């Protein structure tokens, strides 16, 4: 190893996992400095005082600070109001009983459960919880996260990417420890509207620091952001003008009983019909990737957005290589026009829970295959269309699977077909799954 050049060591470190980098840093000072360049390219943090202390330390490290490329602000916090000690204890025993019942139900509890915590242990955990809650309240009231991030970001010269993450969107949260682990209370999406406060805070801090971003991702993000924060986007324009990737996973809400999805679709649709999102994306001249998905559509109210609410008809991005749309409606001609305009560069397409209102996937798929030379493709979720030759119109509907449950046979066949494998149309009437009439 002592004969390897620093350039080779950098290449080696670029392939190592974080835990391996930490061990590698201990070998010697020279290797430690090189590993430090790779150890914290992405920094994940919560609305927690210990995380903001850590951010401050990272931003002042002479090596690490120069190599932080991405910040991920997880939009989870402890629920309010603060619990009393008696409520805290009652919650502990309730959670314990629920967990034991679940383990018994699934025959996962082979041994006797561990004994409950003693009162002194519960008091120690409550002190930690109370301290964390008091800090959280102060951070929110005094906007301490903004003041911290403004200073921190100004000391991160390599920063290019910002993500606001909630509901574990795009992240395998189970693999990450959180600063709330010692509180015996699980953080969740406490601050409403979801994701908005965190995104506003970060955009203000980025604008104040003069940082130019290349990637902006947020989800789940409440649709109200696009209604209420247009002025903020304008003020932050110098930091956003050179974005190459934009990812929004927009929440259209589920009711309190967790039974009716898309209850705020009409309000979201009214906002997007103004063109606020479409105009923002159109103004970005260097886009390479666009991903706009919605959490739900509604059985009663339909879809929150049409293709034209997101992508300006006829607009061309010279470098566009990836596009993803989810829980969106349109016609195959809308998509075919976008694909034809961008066929020299477009190599990655994802359409999830996509509805063709009056046209058929049986025509879209062969046309996509003819127009595009795709490297990756994902047609997933429930895809809906309409037989173009039936009178009255007959609904078409197939289930292609998901990233969570895995693809169905239909989904595999569709994606293989679009990559040029086989010549037979993969969508067959016998494989249709009825998902209800169009609204």
UniProtKB/TrEMBL annotation:
<protein>
    <recommendedName>
        <fullName>F-box domain-containing protein</fullName>
    </recommendedName>
</protein>
<dbReference type="InterPro" id="IPR001810">
    <property type="entry name" value="F-box_dom"/>
</dbReference>
<feature type="domain" description="F-box">
    <location>
        <begin position="2"/>
        <end position="30"/>
    </location>
</feature>
<dbReference type="InterPro" id="IPR036047">
    <property type="entry name" value="F-box-like_dom_sf"/>
</dbReference>
<dbReference type="Pfam" id="PF00646">
    <property type="entry name" value="F-box"/>
</dbReference>
């Amino acid at each position: 190893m002592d004969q390897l050049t620093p350039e080779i060591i950098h290449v080696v470190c670029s392939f190592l996992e974080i835990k391996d980098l930490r061990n590698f840093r201990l070998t010697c000072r020279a290797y430690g400095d090189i590993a430090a360049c790779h150890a914290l390219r992405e920094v994940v943090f919560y609305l927690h005082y210990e995380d903001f202390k850590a951010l401050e330390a990272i931003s002042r490290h002479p090596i690490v600070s120069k190599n932080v490329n991405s910040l991920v602000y997880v939009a989870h916090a402890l629920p309010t109001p603060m619990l009393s000690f008696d409520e805290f204890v009652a919650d502990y025993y309730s959670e314990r009983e629920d967990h034991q019942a679940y383990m018994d139900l699934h025959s996962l509890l082979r041994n006797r459960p561990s004994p409950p915590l003693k009162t002194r242990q519960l008091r120690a955990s409550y002190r930690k919880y109370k301290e964390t809650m008091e800090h959280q309240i102060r951070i929110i009231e005094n906007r301490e996260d903004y003041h911290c991030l403004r200073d921190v970001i100004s000391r991160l010269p390599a920063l290019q990417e910002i993500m606001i993450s909630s509901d574990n969107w795009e992240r395998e949260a189970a693999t990450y420890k959180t600063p709330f682990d010692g509180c015996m209370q699980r953080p969740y999406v406490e601050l409403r509207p979801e994701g908005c406060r965190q995104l506003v805070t970060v955009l203000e801090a980025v604008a104040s620091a003069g940082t130019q971003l290349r990637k902006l991702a947020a989800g789940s993000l409440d649709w109200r952001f696009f209604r209420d924060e247009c002025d903020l986007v304008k003020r932050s324009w110098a930091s956003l003008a050179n974005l190459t990737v934009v990812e929004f996973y927009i929440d259209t809400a589920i009711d309190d009983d967790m039974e009716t999805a898309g209850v705020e679709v009409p309000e979201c649709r009214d906002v997007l019909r103004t063109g606020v999102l479409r105009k923002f994306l159109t103004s970005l001249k260097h886009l390479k990737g666009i991903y706009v998905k919605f959490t739900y559509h509604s059985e009663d109210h339909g879809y929150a957005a049409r293709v034209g609410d997101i992508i300006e008809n006829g607009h061309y991005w010279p470098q566009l290589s990836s596009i993803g749309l989810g829980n969106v409606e349109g016609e195959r001609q809308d998509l075919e026009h976008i694909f034809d305009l961008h066929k020299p560069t477009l190599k990655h397409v994802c359409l999830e829970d996509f509805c063709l209102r009056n046209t058929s996937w049986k025509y879209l798929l062969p046309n996509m295959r003819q127009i595009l030379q795709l490297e990756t493709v994902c047609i997933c979720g429930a895809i809906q269309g309409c037989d173009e030759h039936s009178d009255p119109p007959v609904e078409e509907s197939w289930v292609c699977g998901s990233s969570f449950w895995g693809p169905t046979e239909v989904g595999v066949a569709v994606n293989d077909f679009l990559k040029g494998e086989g010549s037979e149309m993969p969508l067959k009437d016998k494989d249709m799954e009825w998902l209800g009439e169009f609204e």
